[in-house]
Amino acid sequence: MDLKRLIEDSQRYLFNTYNRFPVVLVKGRGAKVWDSEGKEYLDFLGGVAVNILGHCHPKIVVAIQKQAQRLIHVSNFYHIEPQIKLAKLLVKNSFANKVFFCNSGAEANEAAIKLARKYSKKNYGDGRYEIISTINSFHGRTLGSLSATGQDKFQKGFEPLLPGFKHVPFNDIEALKASISKQTCAVLLEPIQGEGGVRLPSDDYLINVKRICNENNLLLMLDEVQTGMGRTGKLFAYEHYGITPDIMTLAKGLGGGAPIGALLATEKVASAFEPGSHASTFGGNPLVCAAAIATLDVILEDGYLLDYCRKIGNYFNEQLLKLKEKYPLIVLDVRGKGLIIGLELDRDGMPYVKACLESGFLINCTAGNVLRFTPPLVIKEEDIDKLISALKEVFKRIS
Q: What's the CATH number where 133 sits?
Protein backbone atom coordinates (compact mmCIF):
# COMPACT_ATOMS: atom_id res chain seq x y z
CA MET A 1 0.00 0.00 0.00
CA ASP A 2 1.38 3.42 -0.93
CA LEU A 3 2.21 6.14 1.60
CA LYS A 4 -0.69 8.40 0.64
CA ARG A 5 -3.26 5.62 1.09
CA LEU A 6 -1.76 4.54 4.43
CA ILE A 7 -1.95 8.07 5.80
CA GLU A 8 -5.50 8.54 4.48
CA ASP A 9 -6.57 5.31 6.21
CA SER A 10 -4.83 6.36 9.40
CA GLN A 11 -6.73 9.64 9.42
CA ARG A 12 -9.99 7.89 8.54
CA TYR A 13 -9.93 5.06 11.06
CA LEU A 14 -7.87 6.27 14.05
CA PHE A 15 -8.82 8.80 16.71
CA ASN A 16 -7.24 12.17 16.01
CA THR A 17 -5.25 12.23 19.28
CA TYR A 18 -1.75 12.72 17.82
CA ASN A 19 -0.18 15.33 15.56
CA ARG A 20 1.46 12.66 13.45
CA PHE A 21 4.27 13.35 11.00
CA PRO A 22 3.63 12.18 7.41
CA VAL A 23 5.83 9.11 7.81
CA VAL A 24 5.00 5.42 8.24
CA LEU A 25 7.81 3.58 10.03
CA VAL A 26 7.93 -0.11 9.14
CA LYS A 27 11.29 -1.53 10.26
CA GLY A 28 13.96 -0.93 12.89
CA ARG A 29 17.35 -2.29 13.86
CA GLY A 30 19.51 -0.85 16.61
CA ALA A 31 19.35 2.94 16.45
CA LYS A 32 17.99 3.00 12.90
CA VAL A 33 14.47 2.85 11.50
CA TRP A 34 13.11 2.80 7.96
CA ASP A 35 9.85 4.14 6.58
CA SER A 36 7.49 2.61 4.03
CA GLU A 37 9.35 4.42 1.25
CA GLY A 38 12.68 2.89 2.27
CA LYS A 39 14.15 6.06 3.78
CA GLU A 40 16.54 5.52 6.71
CA TYR A 41 16.46 7.53 9.94
CA LEU A 42 18.65 7.67 13.03
CA ASP A 43 16.36 7.42 16.04
CA PHE A 44 17.20 9.90 18.82
CA LEU A 45 13.70 9.61 20.29
CA GLY A 46 13.68 5.87 20.97
CA GLY A 47 9.90 5.64 21.08
CA VAL A 48 10.08 8.36 23.77
CA ALA A 49 12.67 6.58 25.94
CA VAL A 50 11.14 3.13 25.34
CA ASN A 51 13.56 1.36 22.99
CA ILE A 52 16.31 1.32 25.59
CA LEU A 53 18.36 -1.34 23.73
CA GLY A 54 17.43 -0.11 20.27
CA HIS A 55 14.97 -1.62 17.85
CA CYS A 56 14.53 -5.38 17.65
CA HIS A 57 17.42 -6.30 19.95
CA PRO A 58 18.13 -9.96 19.16
CA LYS A 59 17.85 -11.13 22.79
CA ILE A 60 14.46 -9.47 23.19
CA VAL A 61 13.23 -10.86 19.88
CA VAL A 62 14.29 -14.40 20.77
CA ALA A 63 12.78 -14.12 24.26
CA ILE A 64 9.42 -13.06 22.78
CA GLN A 65 9.53 -15.81 20.15
CA LYS A 66 10.26 -18.53 22.69
CA GLN A 67 7.61 -17.31 25.13
CA ALA A 68 5.00 -16.97 22.37
CA GLN A 69 5.49 -20.66 21.59
CA ARG A 70 4.89 -21.61 25.22
CA LEU A 71 2.27 -19.28 26.72
CA ILE A 72 1.07 -15.86 25.61
CA HIS A 73 -1.48 -15.07 28.31
CA VAL A 74 -2.92 -16.52 31.48
CA SER A 75 -4.89 -14.87 34.27
CA ASN A 76 -3.29 -13.48 37.41
CA PHE A 77 -5.53 -15.92 39.27
CA TYR A 78 -2.52 -18.21 38.81
CA HIS A 79 1.21 -17.85 39.42
CA ILE A 80 3.09 -16.81 36.25
CA GLU A 81 6.71 -17.94 35.90
CA PRO A 82 8.14 -15.03 33.81
CA GLN A 83 6.37 -12.54 36.09
CA ILE A 84 7.95 -14.09 39.18
CA LYS A 85 11.41 -14.06 37.59
CA LEU A 86 11.07 -10.42 36.54
CA ALA A 87 9.84 -9.34 39.97
CA LYS A 88 12.80 -11.09 41.60
CA LEU A 89 15.23 -9.32 39.23
CA LEU A 90 13.73 -5.91 40.03
CA VAL A 91 13.75 -6.51 43.78
CA LYS A 92 17.33 -7.81 43.78
CA ASN A 93 18.51 -4.69 41.96
CA SER A 94 16.51 -1.97 43.74
CA PHE A 95 15.34 -0.71 47.13
CA ALA A 96 12.04 -2.58 46.80
CA ASN A 97 10.63 -5.76 48.33
CA LYS A 98 7.46 -6.14 46.25
CA VAL A 99 6.38 -5.51 42.66
CA PHE A 100 2.97 -5.05 41.01
CA PHE A 101 2.80 -5.25 37.21
CA CYS A 102 0.56 -3.29 34.85
CA ASN A 103 0.77 -2.10 31.24
CA SER A 104 1.97 1.51 31.18
CA GLY A 105 3.46 4.37 33.15
CA ALA A 106 0.08 6.00 33.67
CA GLU A 107 -1.27 2.75 35.14
CA ALA A 108 1.79 2.41 37.36
CA ASN A 109 1.29 5.94 38.71
CA GLU A 110 -2.42 5.32 39.16
CA ALA A 111 -1.56 2.26 41.25
CA ALA A 112 1.00 4.30 43.23
CA ILE A 113 -1.63 6.93 44.07
CA LYS A 114 -4.01 4.23 45.27
CA LEU A 115 -1.30 2.52 47.30
CA ALA A 116 -0.26 5.77 49.02
CA ARG A 117 -3.83 6.56 50.02
CA LYS A 118 -4.55 2.98 51.14
CA TYR A 119 -1.37 2.88 53.22
CA SER A 120 -2.14 6.22 54.85
CA LYS A 121 -5.73 5.28 55.64
CA LYS A 122 -4.61 1.96 57.13
CA ASN A 123 -1.92 3.54 59.31
CA TYR A 124 -3.28 7.02 60.09
CA GLY A 125 -7.04 6.85 59.57
CA ASP A 126 -9.37 8.96 57.44
CA GLY A 127 -8.63 12.46 56.15
CA ARG A 128 -5.00 11.89 55.17
CA TYR A 129 -5.10 11.48 51.40
CA GLU A 130 -3.43 14.50 49.80
CA ILE A 131 -0.47 14.06 47.45
CA ILE A 132 2.01 16.84 46.65
CA SER A 133 3.43 16.88 43.13
CA THR A 134 5.32 19.54 41.17
CA ILE A 135 4.56 22.15 38.56
CA ASN A 136 5.59 21.01 35.04
CA SER A 137 5.48 17.36 36.10
CA PHE A 138 3.93 14.67 33.93
CA HIS A 139 2.54 11.46 35.41
CA GLY A 140 0.13 10.15 32.78
CA ARG A 141 -3.27 10.65 31.19
CA THR A 142 -5.66 8.57 33.28
CA LEU A 143 -7.83 10.83 35.42
CA GLY A 144 -5.84 10.10 38.57
CA SER A 145 -2.38 10.49 37.05
CA LEU A 146 -3.61 13.52 35.10
CA SER A 147 -4.73 15.14 38.36
CA ALA A 148 -1.23 14.53 39.74
CA THR A 149 0.33 16.09 36.63
CA GLY A 150 1.37 19.72 37.03
CA GLN A 151 0.65 21.02 33.53
CA ASP A 152 -2.63 22.75 32.64
CA LYS A 153 -2.32 21.98 28.94
CA PHE A 154 -2.85 18.27 29.56
CA GLN A 155 -5.75 18.85 31.97
CA LYS A 156 -7.76 21.35 29.93
CA GLY A 157 -11.19 20.01 29.02
CA PHE A 158 -11.17 17.16 31.54
CA GLU A 159 -12.26 19.13 34.59
CA PRO A 160 -13.25 18.56 37.30
CA LEU A 161 -10.04 16.76 38.18
CA LEU A 162 -9.74 14.49 41.18
CA PRO A 163 -9.38 16.34 44.48
CA GLY A 164 -6.44 15.76 46.80
CA PHE A 165 -3.49 17.03 44.78
CA LYS A 166 -1.24 20.04 45.32
CA HIS A 167 1.45 21.31 42.96
CA VAL A 168 4.57 23.18 44.03
CA PRO A 169 7.59 24.41 42.03
CA PHE A 170 10.13 21.71 41.25
CA ASN A 171 13.46 22.08 43.05
CA ASP A 172 11.96 24.42 45.65
CA ILE A 173 12.30 22.78 49.06
CA GLU A 174 10.73 25.71 50.96
CA ALA A 175 7.60 25.57 48.79
CA LEU A 176 7.32 21.84 49.49
CA LYS A 177 7.60 22.35 53.26
CA ALA A 178 5.00 25.13 53.20
CA SER A 179 2.49 22.97 51.30
CA ILE A 180 2.40 20.11 53.82
CA SER A 181 -0.81 19.88 55.82
CA LYS A 182 -2.59 17.41 58.09
CA GLN A 183 -4.17 15.94 54.96
CA THR A 184 -0.84 15.19 53.21
CA CYS A 185 0.11 11.53 52.82
CA ALA A 186 2.79 11.49 50.10
CA VAL A 187 5.08 13.40 47.75
CA LEU A 188 5.24 12.35 44.08
CA LEU A 189 8.23 13.44 41.99
CA GLU A 190 10.07 12.68 38.78
CA PRO A 191 13.82 12.64 39.64
CA ILE A 192 14.25 14.47 36.32
CA GLN A 193 11.27 16.18 34.73
CA GLY A 194 11.14 14.75 31.22
CA GLU A 195 7.97 16.10 29.61
CA GLY A 196 8.49 19.30 31.59
CA GLY A 197 11.66 20.11 29.61
CA VAL A 198 14.39 17.81 31.00
CA ARG A 199 14.64 19.68 34.29
CA LEU A 200 17.24 18.35 36.74
CA PRO A 201 17.15 18.73 40.53
CA SER A 202 19.91 20.43 42.49
CA ASP A 203 22.35 18.02 44.13
CA ASP A 204 20.67 18.19 47.53
CA TYR A 205 17.00 18.55 46.51
CA LEU A 206 15.98 14.90 46.68
CA ILE A 207 17.98 14.37 49.87
CA ASN A 208 16.03 17.21 51.50
CA VAL A 209 12.73 15.92 50.10
CA LYS A 210 13.45 12.52 51.63
CA ARG A 211 14.31 14.13 54.97
CA ILE A 212 11.10 16.15 55.00
CA CYS A 213 9.06 13.06 54.14
CA ASN A 214 10.65 11.16 57.02
CA GLU A 215 10.06 14.01 59.46
CA ASN A 216 6.37 14.21 58.52
CA ASN A 217 5.67 10.48 58.05
CA LEU A 218 5.00 10.99 54.34
CA LEU A 219 5.69 8.49 51.59
CA LEU A 220 8.20 9.47 48.92
CA MET A 221 7.05 8.26 45.50
CA LEU A 222 9.41 8.53 42.54
CA ASP A 223 8.07 8.39 39.00
CA GLU A 224 10.94 6.75 37.11
CA VAL A 225 8.82 5.88 34.08
CA GLN A 226 11.18 7.86 31.85
CA THR A 227 14.40 7.89 33.89
CA GLY A 228 14.50 4.24 34.97
CA MET A 229 16.12 1.23 33.28
CA GLY A 230 19.55 2.78 32.76
CA ARG A 231 18.44 5.94 30.97
CA THR A 232 20.57 8.16 33.23
CA GLY A 233 23.62 5.87 33.44
CA LYS A 234 22.39 4.19 36.62
CA LEU A 235 19.71 1.50 36.62
CA PHE A 236 17.45 3.96 38.45
CA ALA A 237 17.93 7.72 38.68
CA TYR A 238 17.49 7.81 42.47
CA GLU A 239 20.88 6.09 42.74
CA HIS A 240 22.56 9.34 41.65
CA TYR A 241 21.17 11.24 44.62
CA GLY A 242 21.90 9.04 47.63
CA ILE A 243 18.29 8.29 48.59
CA THR A 244 15.73 5.53 48.28
CA PRO A 245 11.99 6.07 47.80
CA ASP A 246 9.13 4.21 49.46
CA ILE A 247 7.39 3.71 46.12
CA MET A 248 8.72 3.81 42.55
CA THR A 249 7.01 3.47 39.19
CA LEU A 250 8.53 2.11 35.98
CA ALA A 251 7.43 1.58 32.38
CA LYS A 252 8.86 2.80 29.02
CA GLY A 253 12.30 1.11 28.86
CA LEU A 254 11.33 -1.80 31.13
CA GLY A 255 10.06 -3.99 28.30
CA GLY A 256 12.58 -2.90 25.68
CA GLY A 257 9.63 -1.99 23.45
CA ALA A 258 6.96 -4.29 24.88
CA PRO A 259 4.16 -2.54 26.85
CA ILE A 260 4.69 -3.05 30.57
CA GLY A 261 4.57 -0.96 33.72
CA ALA A 262 5.55 -1.71 37.29
CA LEU A 263 4.88 -0.44 40.79
CA LEU A 264 7.70 -1.15 43.28
CA ALA A 265 7.51 -0.62 47.03
CA THR A 266 8.99 -1.57 50.36
CA GLU A 267 7.40 -4.46 52.25
CA LYS A 268 5.90 -2.09 54.83
CA VAL A 269 4.11 0.01 52.22
CA ALA A 270 3.20 -2.83 49.86
CA SER A 271 1.38 -4.64 52.67
CA ALA A 272 -1.39 -2.05 52.45
CA PHE A 273 -2.58 -3.80 49.28
CA GLU A 274 -4.50 -7.01 49.87
CA PRO A 275 -6.34 -9.35 47.49
CA GLY A 276 -8.92 -7.21 45.72
CA SER A 277 -7.18 -3.88 46.43
CA HIS A 278 -5.89 -3.54 42.88
CA ALA A 279 -5.63 -5.61 39.70
CA SER A 280 -4.80 -5.63 36.00
CA THR A 281 -5.95 -8.26 33.50
CA PHE A 282 -2.86 -7.99 31.32
CA GLY A 283 -0.45 -6.86 34.06
CA GLY A 284 2.59 -9.12 34.17
CA ASN A 285 1.58 -10.87 30.97
CA PRO A 286 4.02 -13.77 30.24
CA LEU A 287 4.98 -12.36 26.84
CA VAL A 288 5.93 -8.86 27.99
CA CYS A 289 7.62 -10.18 31.13
CA ALA A 290 9.85 -12.36 28.96
CA ALA A 291 10.82 -9.25 26.97
CA ALA A 292 11.51 -7.31 30.17
CA ILE A 293 13.68 -10.10 31.62
CA ALA A 294 15.78 -10.09 28.46
CA THR A 295 16.05 -6.30 28.62
CA LEU A 296 17.20 -6.31 32.24
CA ASP A 297 19.66 -9.12 31.60
CA VAL A 298 21.36 -7.09 28.86
CA ILE A 299 21.45 -3.90 30.94
CA LEU A 300 22.86 -5.64 34.01
CA GLU A 301 25.38 -7.79 32.15
CA ASP A 302 28.82 -6.74 33.49
CA GLY A 303 27.51 -3.19 34.01
CA TYR A 304 28.99 -2.33 30.63
CA LEU A 305 25.91 -0.66 29.20
CA LEU A 306 25.42 1.64 32.19
CA ASP A 307 29.07 2.74 32.02
CA TYR A 308 28.70 3.25 28.29
CA CYS A 309 25.53 5.32 28.79
CA ARG A 310 27.36 7.71 31.10
CA LYS A 311 30.33 7.96 28.74
CA ILE A 312 28.34 8.45 25.53
CA GLY A 313 25.95 10.80 27.34
CA ASN A 314 28.87 13.01 28.35
CA TYR A 315 30.11 13.01 24.75
CA PHE A 316 26.65 13.97 23.47
CA ASN A 317 26.39 16.73 26.05
CA GLU A 318 29.81 18.11 25.06
CA GLN A 319 28.85 18.26 21.38
CA LEU A 320 25.60 20.05 22.19
CA LEU A 321 27.50 22.57 24.32
CA LYS A 322 29.69 23.31 21.31
CA LEU A 323 26.50 23.91 19.33
CA LYS A 324 25.40 26.31 22.06
CA GLU A 325 28.69 28.21 21.72
CA LYS A 326 28.11 28.50 17.98
CA TYR A 327 24.51 29.69 18.36
CA PRO A 328 24.39 31.49 21.74
CA LEU A 329 21.39 33.62 20.79
CA ILE A 330 19.29 30.56 19.94
CA VAL A 331 20.42 27.88 22.40
CA LEU A 332 19.68 28.89 25.98
CA ASP A 333 20.77 25.75 27.81
CA VAL A 334 21.98 22.16 27.51
CA ARG A 335 21.07 19.84 30.37
CA GLY A 336 20.63 16.17 31.08
CA LYS A 337 22.03 13.05 32.64
CA GLY A 338 23.15 9.97 30.74
CA LEU A 339 20.99 9.75 27.62
CA ILE A 340 18.10 11.99 28.56
CA ILE A 341 19.23 15.40 27.31
CA GLY A 342 17.43 18.66 26.61
CA LEU A 343 18.50 21.50 24.33
CA GLU A 344 16.53 24.58 25.32
CA LEU A 345 15.92 27.15 22.57
CA ASP A 346 14.76 30.75 22.71
CA ARG A 347 11.97 29.91 20.27
CA ASP A 348 9.49 27.23 19.21
CA GLY A 349 11.31 23.95 18.71
CA MET A 350 8.89 22.22 16.35
CA PRO A 351 10.37 23.66 13.11
CA TYR A 352 13.70 22.12 14.16
CA VAL A 353 12.06 18.74 14.80
CA LYS A 354 10.47 18.79 11.34
CA ALA A 355 13.70 19.86 9.67
CA CYS A 356 15.59 17.04 11.40
CA LEU A 357 12.96 14.56 10.24
CA GLU A 358 13.48 15.69 6.66
CA SER A 359 17.23 15.20 7.19
CA GLY A 360 16.74 11.66 8.50
CA PHE A 361 16.75 12.13 12.29
CA LEU A 362 13.97 11.46 14.78
CA ILE A 363 13.98 13.93 17.68
CA ASN A 364 11.29 15.47 19.86
CA CYS A 365 10.23 18.85 21.21
CA THR A 366 8.80 19.15 24.70
CA ALA A 367 7.70 22.12 26.83
CA GLY A 368 7.39 24.07 23.57
CA ASN A 369 11.03 25.01 23.15
CA VAL A 370 13.18 22.10 24.42
CA LEU A 371 14.58 19.60 21.94
CA ARG A 372 14.59 16.30 23.85
CA PHE A 373 16.95 13.46 23.02
CA THR A 374 16.30 9.98 24.42
CA PRO A 375 18.11 7.65 22.01
CA PRO A 376 18.75 3.95 22.62
CA LEU A 377 21.63 3.27 24.98
CA VAL A 378 23.43 1.61 22.07
CA ILE A 379 23.78 4.89 20.15
CA LYS A 380 27.29 5.46 18.79
CA GLU A 381 29.58 8.48 18.67
CA GLU A 382 29.41 8.48 14.89
CA ASP A 383 25.59 8.64 15.10
CA ILE A 384 25.82 11.63 17.45
CA ASP A 385 28.31 13.32 15.12
CA LYS A 386 25.86 12.90 12.25
CA LEU A 387 23.05 14.47 14.28
CA ILE A 388 25.22 17.39 15.35
CA SER A 389 26.18 18.04 11.73
CA ALA A 390 22.52 17.94 10.76
CA LEU A 391 21.58 20.29 13.60
CA LYS A 392 24.23 22.76 12.48
CA GLU A 393 22.76 22.79 8.99
CA VAL A 394 19.22 23.10 10.34
CA PHE A 395 20.19 25.96 12.68
CA LYS A 396 21.99 27.72 9.86
CA ARG A 397 19.05 27.32 7.47
CA ILE A 398 16.21 28.19 9.87
CA SER A 399 18.05 30.96 11.71
A: 3.40.640.10
> Can you tell me the distance from the alpha carbon of 181 to that of 194, in angstroms, rounded to the nearest whole number?
28
Q: Helix 286-300 to helix 81-92 angle, to the nearest 10 degrees?
A: 30
- In percent, the amount of the chain with pLDDT more than 70 equals 100
User: Cα dist. 348→19, 131, 357 in Å?
Assistant: 16, 33, 16
Q: Which is catalytic among the residues 95, 138, 273, 316?
A: 138
223 catalytic, yes or no? yes
The answer to whether residue 138 is catalytic is: yes
- The whole domain housing 321 covers 3-56+304-398
Catalytic residue, chosen from 101, 170, 223, 361, is 223
Rounded mean pLDDT of the chain? 97
Which CATH number covers residue 28? 3.90.1150.10
- The residue out of 281, 302, 323 marking a domain boundary is 302
pLDDT in tens, 190-243: 999 999 999 999 999 999 999 999 999 999 999 999 999 999 999 999 999 999
Count of domains for the chain: 2
Low pLDDT (below 50) residues in the chain: none
**38 and 142: one domain?**
no
Q: Give catalytic status of residue 172 as yes or no.
A: no
Which is the catalytic residue, given 118, 234, 252, 337? 252
